[in-house]
Design brief:
Layout: E1 2-6, E2 9-11, E3 17-24, E4 33-38, E5 45-50, E6 57-59, E7 67-72, E8 77-82, E9 91-97, E10 100-101, E11 105-109
Parallel strand pairs: 2-11
Antiparallel strand pairs: 1-3, 3-8, 4-5, 4-9, 5-6, 7-8, 9-10, 9-11
Length: about 110
């Protein structure tokens, strides 16, 4: 199993970023996928989940209405569109399937 995140970076407050997670080594189209994040000095927290066919999505209250999780099963990729970013969104963002994690991608929201 391999999960590879990309798309992080430095963005101004109010800006947007789109994270991607390329998955391999398992049947992606049968897998619910999630995003988590970990800010400095804090525990890793759940951000969003999407079911295997994309029919249902779930969000943490802190990102609801600002973030959108989606997937392309033809590309074995899950996305996290992040809008209206706030400094408190600064964290390393991780892609997750069961007990497997990617290496993470850093998102920094700062002026």
């Amino acid at each position: 199993v391999r999960l590879v995140e990309s798309g992080g970076g430095l963005v101004l407050p109010g800006g947007s970023l789109r994270l991607s997670c390329a998955a391999s080594g398992f049947t992606f189209s049968s897998a619910g996928m999630s995003w988590y994040r970990q800010a400095p000095g804090k525990e890793r927290e759940w951000v969003a989940t999407i079911t295997s066919l994309g029919g249902s999505t779930y969000y943490a209250d802190s990102v609801k209405g600002r973030f959108t999780i989606s997937r392309d099963n033809a590309k074995n990729t899950v996305y996290l569109q992040m809008n209206s970013l706030k400094p408190e969104d600064t964290a390393v963002y991780y892609c997750n399937w069961r007990s497997y994690w990617g290496q993470g991608t850093q998102v920094t929201v700062s002026s």
